[in-house]
Amino acid sequence: MTRVTEKLQKGDRPLLSLEITPPDRGQSIDELFHNIDSLMPMSPDFINVTYHQAYEDYEEKNGSIIRRPRRKKPGTVGICAAIKNRFAVEPVAHLICGGFDRWETEDALIDLHYLGIRNILALRGDPPPGQSLFRPKKDGYAFAADLVAQIRDMNRGVYVDALDDPVPTSFSIGVAGYPEKHVEAANGEVDMRHLKEKVDQGADYVVTQMFFSARLYKDYVARAREAGITVPIIPGIKPVTTLKQLERIPRTFFVSLPDVLVRSISEAPTAKDAFEKGTDFVADLAGELLEAGAPGLHLFTMGKGRATKAALTKIFGSHR
Ligand code: FAD
Fold first, then answer.
1. Which structural domains are found in the chain, ordered by start?
2. DSSP assignment of 65-132
3. Given 65, 256, 263, 309, which is the most exposed site by the fewest CB atoms within 10 A?
4. Which tens digit of pLDDT belongs to each residue from 179-233?
5. Which residues line ligand 1 (CB under 6 A)?
């Protein structure tokens, strides 16, 4: 049960984590497993599984308004357990504040601990579809720092309610960081102060939102160190290989794409050329980041293996 913290401390070679997304409700898991299979020659150290908040939808039926609770992508905990058993790779379960009160969070952590899952990426979560502001559940948390504090407390044997002789958990705790600042933060300094709060509450490491310039990462790490944040900061990167992604990624993740990447994809004569250009770009970026001392790489795969595999092959060769 290797923890991210132990792997980072060992530091024998750059850590490699892959982030996958559960399939939509009702879809087969086979394609996701097939994609993970194709990435196994790269010996990922960890596979992160995203968590998707449930939300409420209303529809009219026979003149009545019916509430429909929905979660587009269930299955995070099950997929984490399957990854551990099927691929013998350590999963990192994403856990969010949205939709959980503190007792439900405790239950989720107990389940994960029973399954032998020891790595959590603690997040606030985005507002669910149709909502512009994040609203915590009653007795839940408005910020990831509070979720981190609850996990830290459980690691010390402190549960929400007093219990007789409770067993301490042993989770490593990651949190998110934003080299281009989080969309809701007034500015980068404010956002950095909030990152520091998460680390002060017990976060062991940071994984960044995707970015597309090594300069952004280097500046971010320098600013974090100035702010007194000493934990490892793992850069999050993503291969961008299609015109559709050029439009969607900045809008969805509030990040900027450099002109050189935009031009090379939009001016590529064929989709195959665009694929080559996009994977070359991310491989060069990864090389610069590792040279700059990044402790590893976190690849956002969105459950699709082809571009990730091509990029990783360009970075590490056909096997790592
Ligand atoms: P927080 O750290 O709580 O910050 C949220 C905002 O509040 C920031 O603007 C921050 O500056 C501000 N803030 C923090 N503390 C305070 C305070 N005390 N007072 C006032 N303002 C404050 N989302 C999912 O739903 N599921 C996932 O699986 C998921 N995986 C992700 C993986 C990575 C690597 C990253 C980078 C993001 C992921 N996200 C995921 C998205 C994330 O949930 C959103 O970006 C969300 O809007 C913020 O989450 P956070 O944990 O960074 O929040």
1. 4-315 (3.20.20.220)
2. EEEEEE-SS--HHHHHHHHHHHH--EEEEEEESTT--HHHHHHHHHHHHHTT--EEEEE--PPPTT-S
3. 65
4. 999 999 999 999 999 999 999 999 999 999 999 999 999 999 999 999 999 999 9
5. 50-51, 53, 94, 96, 121, 123-126, 143-145, 176, 182, 184-185, 190-191, 194, 197-198, 207, 209, 236
